[in-house]
Amino acid sequence: MTRSERPVPRSTSVVVHYGDVEPTLRLANHLADFDTDVVVVANDGAARPDALRSAVEWLVPGRNLGYGEAFTTAVRGRRTEAMVLLNNDIALPRDTFERCLDVLLADQSAGIVGPVLRHEDNTLQSGAAWLTRWRRVPKVLVDPGPVTVECAWVTGAVMFIRREVADGVGMDGSFFLGAEDADLCIRARRAGWRILCCGDAVATHHGSRVIGARWNYYSTRNRVWYTRSCFGLGPAMLNWLSAAALLPRVALADLVKRGDMTASRLCLLALAHAWWRKPTAAEGPLAGEPLPDRLLRS
Which of 120, 227, 257, 292 pairs as cysteine with 217 (C-beta 3.0–4.6 A)? Predict the structure, then answer.
């Protein structure tokens, strides 16, 4: 059977790639055995690996799009019932994939579904998160048990999204890296969709070897951007003040443990950029992203 004759699968799976090709290659080839179209977005401009299975699409954008914008680019115009967004460092068993997809498509009110995500030592990384009362950020260490439960947020590291949500609500790629998953879940719930976590479906997150120190910047800046966009100035200011209060501890760790001040400098940069105007989803990521790389190269 040729590819054109193959029945249309229920989903399109998008793997966002940057850096070492081996994890991406392993995950994409693994997914190629599932009932899903597989698309890799090579944000680093890497050429298609020879060992990649022929069924997998390999897209090379003109620039580094970040996480959310890469997903949006990959799924634009696709007509599968669901879209699956994946970090390249996820281990996703077939039964977990099929369980999450079944839950999503069996309930017409379900907009986004995620599995429970665990570390390599089987400890909980994220589950059925709700938002903290004042700062309005996800409280991720909520184990739902072996049932499917409604929640406010599931991790974007592996997220099953109904096509109508991907098209109608849409992921905001202007964050570039981080908080786009929380932002999408909040806006989807406000549009009437349910967010569900499958407690009986588990995936493993091996942890990024690529983001590294950049996370000090994006976790700080984007938490302020996300809360200001979704909840207003009050929660945004609380998150900014919380990050500022942690800065001495980061600086001490830089001095004592790391031997350089990179993390502190990135946090300071993020605190300054947090009050920039966040681009709209239509505008996409700021020119010059990833902005931390300018400091890392200096």
Answer: 292
Give the whole-angstrom CA distance, residue 155 versus residue 292.
Answer: 23
The first and second tokens of residue 200, run together, are 């009986």
Give the pLDDT of residue 2. 46
**Averaged confidence pLDDT in the chain:** 94
Alpha carbon distance 214, 171 (integer Å): 21
Dihedral sign from CA coordinates of 212, 214, 218, 220: positive
CA distance 190 to 132: 17
What band does 8 get if pLDDT is binned at 50, 70 and 90? confident
How much is the pTM?
0.94
SS3 call for 112: strand
Q: Give the pLDDT confidence of 36-53 residue by residue, as tens digits.
A: 999 999 999 999 999 999
Beta-strand pair 138-139/148-151: unpaired
Q: What angle do CA 261, 277, 138 make, to 5 degrees?
A: 70
Percent of the chain exceeding pLDDT 90 equals: 90
Contact 297, 262 (CB under 8 A): no
Separation of alpha carbons 73 and 48, rounded Å? 18
Q: Could you identify the residue written with the tokens 């990959």? A: 74
User: What does residue 58 show for φ and ψ, rounded to 5 degrees?
Assistant: -125, 105
Work out the widest C-alpha separation in the chain, in whole angstroms: 62
